[in-house]
Design brief:
CATH superfamily of the largest domain: Lipoprotein localisation LolA/LolB/LppX
Largest sheet: 11 strands, antiparallel
Number of helices: 5
CATH topology of the largest domain: outer membrane lipoprotein receptor (LolB), chain A
Order of helices and strands: HEEEEEHEEEEEHEHEEEEEEEHE
CATH architecture of the largest domain: Clam
Number of domains: 2
Structural class: mainly beta
Distance between the termini: 38 Å
Shape: globular
């Protein structure tokens, strides 16, 4: 489970007590360790744009590997299996907020880094799925990211509930366990993918991916965001190479996709579904017309600025 694409609540400044910052850092450290050390299984609900879905999750830590299976219980059976954060197979179209990109890796939270971009605080206690919890808030210090309210299990540090609101106080995303078992370890059969779970094959060209970082850069990024990976693949329909760049600030993520238009007529677009935005802009480069698309859990204005800031080095190796 993505420790945090979970979610958040922006709290009024007067409600965040700075004296609890050190305690908040300790809890975030526990959270990062818990998902790499604690086996569990349970049921949770996920809400986005007023739409609800229910899911089972099995999470096993064994022999240095973290294996996880998610199964959506509403409608058609949608499923994803991951090992150490890498997607192994997928069935259906699992909600975007619950499934990372196939080549994304598990991340360790770094509270020391996060406190540069978020105000961290322990703001109270709660009870979720029958388990006592501590409430930790992460309030952004600028307008380029969302804040998080995390209800962490007192016993294990696992996230029991998480809420995400925009700067107007509107709920963008909710994650909440209704049942959680940390005493028993999921079995092999629990973690075995169903027959409809199709293997994910990554055709990324490592040599081409290296050229991506050499040839593309952004003239502007929100403070704290850094390039963490790049990849290149061929679009099965257009047969053109699509380059992608992944950025994060240690908590929030967004991806930039770059594709040559080759004379195609396209329209600039901007859409938002819950916390996830997708902004596409056409750019003129020395290599020709390109479509730049930014997708991630960031405000739409920030995504637009990033898209328009992408630049290519005309001298890059072709």
């Amino acid at each position: 489970m993505r420790a945090i694409p979970l979610l958040s609540l922006l709290l009024s400044g007067w409600f965040v007590v700075p004296v609890h910052a050190d305690e908040a850092q300790d809890w975030l450290t526990r959270l990062g360790q818990a998902e790499q050390q604690q086996s569990f299984y349970g049921t949770f609900v996920y809400e986005r744009n007023g739409s609800f879905s229910t899911h089972n999750i099995w999470h096993r830590v064994q022999d240095g590997k973290v294996r996880e299976r998610l199964l959506q219980l509403d409608g058609s059976a949608q499923e994803v299996v991951r090992i150490d954060g890498h997607t192994q197979c997928v069935s259906g179209t699992l909600i975007a907020g619950l499934g990372d990109s196939p080549n994304s890796t598990a991340r360790a939270l770094d509270p020391q880094k996060l406190k540069n971009w978020y105000d961290l605080a322990v703001i109270g206690k709660s009870r979720v799925a029958g388990r006592p919890a501590v409430i930790v808030s992460l309030t952004p210090r600028d307008q380029h990211r969302y804040g998080f309210e995390l209800h962490l299990d007192k016993e294990t540090g696992l996230p029991l509930k998480s809420l995400l609101l925009n700067d107007k106080g509107q709920l963008l995303e909710r994650f909440q366990f209704t049942q959680l078992n940390t005493a028993d370890v999921p079995s092999d059969s629990d973690l075995r993918a169903g027959a409809d779970c199709k293997t994910v094959n990554l055709d990324s060209d490592k040599a081409s991916a290296a050229k991506v970082t050499q040839s593309w850069h952004s003239d502007w990024l929100p403070p704290g965001f850094e390039l963490t990976s790049s990849s290149a693949r061929k679009d099965p329909e257009t047969k053109t190479q699509v380059n992608s760049l992944l950025y994060d600030d240690g908590l929030a993520r967004f991806s930039v996709f770059l594709e040559p238009l080759n004379g195609a007529t396209v329209t600039d677009t901007r859409t938002q579904l819950g916390p996830t935005v997708a902004v596409s802009r056409r750019l003129t480069t020395p290599q020709g017309e390109m479509m730049v698309t930014v997708v991630g859990e960031i405000p739409i204005g920030t995504a637009e600025r990033i898209a328009l800031s992408m630049r290519t080095d005309a001298t890059a190796t072709k």
